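Good morning C.,

I know you're traveling, so I'll keep this short. The sequence:
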Amino acid sequence: MNFTKAALLFLFAFTFVGCASSQKEDEIPEVKPDPVIELEARRNAKLYRQSEKQMLKSMQLPTITYEFDSIRPPDYAYPFLDKVANIMKDQPHLRLIIEGHTDIIGSKEYNYWLSGSRAAAMKSYLVSRGVSAESIRIHAHGKDRPLTLDHSDAGRRTNRRVEFTFTTRDWNTVY
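The tokens, ready to paste straight into the viewer:
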């Protein structure tokens, strides 16, 4: 009985040490980047180049990504926001949904606040440009709707975003 226990213990230890030493210390496993990150970057680059007329026709808008823990819109966002403001003023039947998102870092409560503040900053800018506040709704999603599960710097940056959606529907039929 003792021999059987000793043999099993030896076999377990030998297997454990063998598995633990199968990868060399200086070997770093290859991590393939999430294709969603590159796809989203290409999509945004294309959508940022749209004219106001093309935006109105396609009804597709790029996302704006944020620096870590920031609610200040990035400088590159203002020309895009100006186009959206012009479209909204020229097309009073349009409504705009602005949805804020964060990466995984931080508490759930803080990330809801942060994502809502990002969306509110976008709305405030558009209202300052003459867009009716009643034509814009904001929603905070925090870290609940990531585009990618990649937790690299690029993945977290992709998830720190504000999304825009045009709609012609009345608010009571949207939410």
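Safe travels,
E.
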